[in-house]
Amino acid sequence: MAAHLVSVLRERVEALIGRLSEAARSDALTGVLNRRGFEELLDRELERARRTDQALSVIMVDLDHFKRLNDRLGHGMGDIALRKV
Prior knowledge:
Mean pLDDT: 91
Distance between the termini: 50 Å
Structural class: mainly alpha
């Protein structure tokens, strides 16, 4: 009985650690990788590209005048715009 309880608790803790790890690497609003997550992924992909002698492309997106949108329409509308992008 105690061994089963320990096993169940261990599984729950491991699942929680996985969720926390994911949360530390992504933006809560959009689900997009944050800087930390992006850098970790980029490092892995650069290594894979070197190892396999394949090209790697990176596309970056910048929203012009986003602060103005937040200032004029409010952060709620800014959040909606970010989710749409």
